Amino acid sequence: MPHLPISKQAGVLANTEMHGVKKAQSISRALNQKTRQKMIAWIHKRESANVSQVYEAMEMEQSVASQHLAILGCAGIVMARRERKNRVYSLNYARIDQIQDSVTKLLYRVEEQSSDSAGATG
């Protein structure tokens, strides 16, 4: 980070890390719920759906379906677009790929760390 004093660079890095943590929490919250998992699978099968289709298929109130879709949207897992009077939801496959890559990297890091610590004690 050129042109910033060291103390400001540290602050920028801390803010970036906090932003990453908040994003991870948002993703975890979105994926850690069976109803939202079913919604993701259901939308995937159909490529896209409006909220009426989602709440009818999931057998829930429209407001509940909208809340679940909003949580998935905040995590970047679904995208919404306007079609006439409806919001149509589809999966954000690019974001899902990023999430998958991040989890894979995390697993490799954890595996490497456990291998390193096992080698240090052995």
CATH architecture of the largest domain: Orthogonal Bundle
**Mean pLDDT, rounded to whole units?**
84
Query: What is the number of strand segments?
Result: 3
What kind of oligomer do you see? single chain
Annotated CATH homologous superfamily of the largest domain:
Winged helix-like DNA-binding domain superfamily/Winged helix DNA-binding domain
Helix/strand structural class: mainly alpha
Instruction: Based on Cα principal axes, name the global outline.
Output: elongated
Order of helices and strands: HHEHHEEH
Low-confidence stretches: none
Helix content: over 70%
Assign the CATH topology of the largest domain: Arc Repressor Mutant, subunit A
Amino-to-carboxy terminus distance: 40 Å
Question: Over all CA atoms, what is the radius of gyration?
Answer: 20 Å
Query: Strand share of the residues?
Result: 5-15%
| Number of discrete domains | 2
Number of helices: 5
